[in-house]
């Protein structure tokens, strides 16, 4: 009997491999022997109705019998099978499109047809993580030309569903990132939707930051909505704040983002393709892009920002959407909170017009919302900020935000962490430098964004005068071990917040 005709029984063994499909087998399994499978082999697992591609790992204990195959949670969700169901396993055919990726590494340009093949194979799971990483490396830096970026964007849009709102104007915004605590989207959506404009915000989870819009929003309300649920929320409230991955908008991009997060690797062209593909797939007609500039932000200087602006606008124009790109100050964190629950706390403080709310976060949200109100013809040019401020101060934005949360499944106040630790100034002086990347990494070390309550709360800004022993920021953690780990990291980087000495 052929090896692929010999079935194995499925076991759901409850291992979280994030979005990577992994299959677990005994090394003495008859299929492993006959097929010559080894660790990291790529195999096709097929039921009568469905098949997936997964990466093999071997089990050496009695967790599985040699008649069973275990699936990670990601693989189980993809296969949509039942416990104990029989499957057939065989070697997965290598993705022929990977030759295009190797050619790109060798210095050749992507053709539009080859990019479509690459994205198609990525969506089908034909690329293991090492090949996904190779693709991202080939696209890193400024290695993609404008025609290549356009081709990748088109291919990503075609990789999943596309929403049509059947109205002439659908607004959206995006920040290219690199600045912790820049949680403007919930505020902007609330203000713009309260003004009567349509703004369905679909976002990704955090890539390299301690929290994304979705990570913050799911502290307060459900974000995993179906397409029909999203439509109902938007029809009722003019806006939403949901996870785009729940409705398969640009699934190729979701797969790439998982690996990009692990690599902590940015690519100008891939960033443009990722951002615009998701906006187009979400049905946006007008998009405002915020580009923070700073020495420890993603975009380091004005020339890099200008190059990115041109690429964003030109790619959007070629694909039929209007893109407006603006620059902003990326020299320091924006809000006080860094981490999902702490950023949610900041958002609510601004919406509730709390006198202790972070002023910089409120101002940046008002600038972005004001520009969108002008684009949406709700305010004359130069008058958008004033209208946005009026909507916020009147309580209309808070009311709209709560209505959106209720429509998405209900509102919950952000939780708090079990452990906190104040980090204080070692001497008198003026705050002259704050390292955004260090602050973000420190928030990661205490558990953000996976642990929703974890992160840190800034208590100083650039230019502040401090005295020895004054709090600089407070760490929030659920586990003391994570808190101690962060403190060890902090000791190794004493200049992440620079205090120029003065004598007070």
Highest-level CATH class of the largest domain: Alpha Beta
Number of domains: 3
Helix fraction, binned, reads 25-40%
* Main sheet characteristics: 6 strands, mixed, barrel
Percentage of residues in strands:
15-25%
Keywords: Glycosyltransferase, Transferase
InterPro entries: Glycosyl_Trfase_fam3, Glycosyl_Trfase_fam3_N_dom, Glycosyl_Trfase_fam3_N_dom_sf, Nuc_phospho_transferase, PYNP-like_C_sf, PYNP_C, Pyrmidine_PPase_CS, Thym_Pase_Put
Pfam families: Glycos_trans_3N, Glycos_transf_3, PYNP_C
Domain Pyrimidine nucleoside phosphorylase C-terminal: 430-497
Description:
40% of the residues lie in helices and 19% in strands. By secondary structure, the chain is α/β, with parallel strands linked by helices. The protein folds into 3 domains: 3-91, Barwin-like endoglucanases; 171-246 and 278-408, Pyrimidine Nucleoside Phosphorylase, Chain A, domain 2; 419-501, Aldehyde Oxidoreductase, domain 3. The strands form 5 sheets. The chain has a 6-stranded mixed barrel with strand order 1-5-2-4-3-6. A 4-stranded antiparallel beta sheet has the order 12-15-17-13. Strands 7-10-11 form a 3-stranded parallel beta sheet, with helices on both faces. The mean pLDDT is 93.
Element layout with pairings:
Elements: E1 8-12, E2 22-26, H1 30-35, E3 42-46, E4 51-59, E5 68-71, H2 73-79, E6 86-91, H3 98-105, H4 112-123, H5 129-138, H6 146-157, E7 171-175, H7 185-194, E8 199-203, H8 213-217, H9 227-237, E9 239-243, H10 251-263, H11 268-281, E10 286-293, H12 302-318, E11 322-329, E12 337-338, H13 340-351, H14 359-375, H15 384-393, H16 396-408, E13 419-424, E14 429-434, H17 436-445, E15 455-458, E16 465-466, E17 471-477, H18 480-492, E18 497-501
Parallel strand pairs: 1-5, 2-4, 7-10, 8-9, 10-11
Antiparallel strand pairs: 1-6, 2-5, 3-4, 3-6, 12-15, 13-17, 14-16, 14-18, 15-17
Helix pairs in contact: 3-5, 4-6, 4-10, 5-10, 6-11, 6-12, 7-14, 7-16, 9-16, 11-12, 14-15
């Amino acid at each position: 009997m052929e090896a692929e005709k010999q079935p194995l029984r499925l076991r759901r063994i409850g291992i979280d491999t994030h979005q990577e499909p992994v299959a677990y087998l005994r090394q003495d399994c008859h299929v492993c022997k006959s097929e010559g499978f080894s660790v990291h082999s790529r195999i096709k697992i097929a039921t009568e109705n469905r098949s997936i591609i997964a990466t093999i790992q071997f089990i050496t204990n009695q967790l599985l019998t040699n008649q069973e195959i275990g699936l990670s949670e990601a693989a189980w969700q993809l296969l949509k099978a039942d416990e104990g169901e029989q499957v057939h396993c065989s070697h997965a055919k290598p993705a022929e499109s990977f030759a295009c990726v190797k050619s790109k590494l060798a210095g050749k340009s992507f053709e539009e047809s080859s990019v479509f093949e690459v994205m198609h194979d990525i969506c089908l799971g034909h690329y293991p993580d090492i090949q996904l990483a190779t693709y991202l490396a080939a696209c890193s830096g400024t290695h993609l030309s404008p025609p290549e970026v356009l081709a990748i964007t088109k291919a990503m849009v075609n990789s999943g569903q596309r929403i049509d709102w059947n109205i002439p104007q659908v607004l959206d915004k995006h920040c290219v990132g690199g600045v912790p605590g820049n949680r403007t989207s919930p505020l902007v959506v609330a203000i713009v939707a309260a003004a009567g404009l349509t703004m369905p915000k679909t976002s990704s989870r955090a890539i390299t930051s301690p929290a994304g819009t979705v990570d913050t929003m799911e502290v307060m309300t459900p974000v995993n909505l179906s397409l029909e649920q999203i439509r109902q929320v938007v029809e009722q409230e003019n806006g939403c704040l949901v996870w785009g991955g729940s409705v398969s908008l640009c699934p190729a991009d979701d797969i790439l983002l998982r690996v990009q997060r692990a690599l902590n690797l940015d690519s100008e062209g891939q960033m443009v393709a990722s951002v615009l593909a998701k906006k187009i797939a979400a049905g946006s007609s007008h998009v405002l892009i915020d580009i923070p500039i700073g020495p420890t932000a993603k975009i380091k200087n004005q020339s890099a920002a200008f190059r990115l602006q041109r690429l964003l606008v030109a790619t959007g124009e070629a694909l039929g959407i209007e893109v407006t790109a603006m620059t902003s100050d990326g020299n320091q964190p924006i809000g006080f909170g860094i981490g999902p629950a702490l950023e949610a706390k900041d958002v609510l403080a601004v919406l509730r017009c709390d006198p202790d709310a972070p002023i910089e976060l409120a101002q940046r949200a008002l600038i972005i919302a004001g520009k969108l109100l002008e684009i949406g013809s709700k305010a004359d040019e130069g008058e958008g900020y004033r209208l946005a401020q009026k909507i916020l101060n009147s309580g209309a934005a808070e009311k709209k935000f709560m209505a959106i949360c209720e429509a998405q499944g209900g509102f919950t106040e952000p939780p708090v962490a079990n452990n906190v630790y104040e980090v204080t100034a070692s001497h008198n002086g003026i705050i002259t430098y704050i390292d955004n990347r260090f602050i973000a990494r420190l928030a990661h070390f205490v558990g953000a964004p996976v642990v929703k309550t974890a992160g840190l709360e800034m208590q100083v800004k650039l230019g502040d005068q401090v005295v020895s022993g004054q709090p600089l920021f407070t760490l929030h953690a659920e586990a003391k071990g994570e808190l101690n780990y962060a403190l060890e990291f902090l000791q190794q980087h004493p200049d992440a917040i620079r205090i120029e000495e003065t004598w007070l």
